[in-house]
Amino acid sequence: MSRIKKYFLYQAMQRTRIDEYLAKNFYTAGYAGIQLIQSGLGTRVHIYAERPALIIGRRGSTIKRLQKVFQKVFGLQNPQVTVSQPDDMELNARVQAFRVVRSLEMGYHFRRVAMATLRRIMENGALGAEIIISGKLTNERAKFEKLQVGKIIKTGEAVDSYVERAVAHAKLPQGIYGVQILIVKPEASTPDIEEKPEKEVKNAIESMIESGEVAEEGGEGPEKVEEMIEEISREEESGV
Length: 240
Hints:
The chain is of the alpha+beta class. The chain folds into 3 domains: 3-84, GMP Synthetase, Chain A, domain 3 (2-Layer Sandwich); 89-189, Ribosomal protein S3 C-terminal domain (2-Layer Sandwich), CATH 3.30.1140; 192-238. Helix content is 46%, strand content 25%. It has helices at residues 3-25, 52-56, 61-72, 93-105, 110-123, 158-162, 192-211, 221-238; strands spanning 31-39, 42-49, 79-84, 128-135, 143-150, 163-172, 175-184. It has a 4-stranded antiparallel sheet. It has a 3-stranded mixed sheet with strand order 1-2-3. Strand 1 (31-39) and strand 2 (42-49) form a beta hairpin. Helix 4 (93-105) packs antiparallel against helix 5. The chain is globular and about 50 Å long.
């Protein structure tokens, strides 16, 4: 394995370890994710959370402790920690998953919590959402319950671009509950990719008619229009 591959693997593993540490210790703050930025002055650690104050601590005490942990445990050089809320918290799967976990640990019924979460997600513009809660829900035998609403995408390239997924765990007297949330973002319904070629063809045809290169009616106009459509389609397929 080359040194470059080892470097990127190490960076990915380091980020994953820090992410798991923060998710385990700050789920009550609605931990949503982390961003690491390397610079000549050290490492900038940007933490996203629903309630930043719980991570900052009184007079920045928690931040100072995290800086020591990042430096001594995870080997970050001169870590500088900042905390802020993520964009679109209601459509952030991790924030919603930890909300469900906190509600379950407070004693709310799992189905009531799931339905309220689904309603809140959809009211904020999501195309679809799914919640799966597993554990000893109603008796001593473990099972799972799935609730979903709207359009759910689980395969294809759209999953990487438009779907957020998060998993969290709630510790209850009867055992551990698993919570999985999947949110389909509003952008998944944008039809720009399909409409753009048709719009370009229409504009090109109108331009050809205005310039007199094709006839609007009669003559060889229709044949030339068909040829132009086929040519533009070939260019779209070839990526020209």
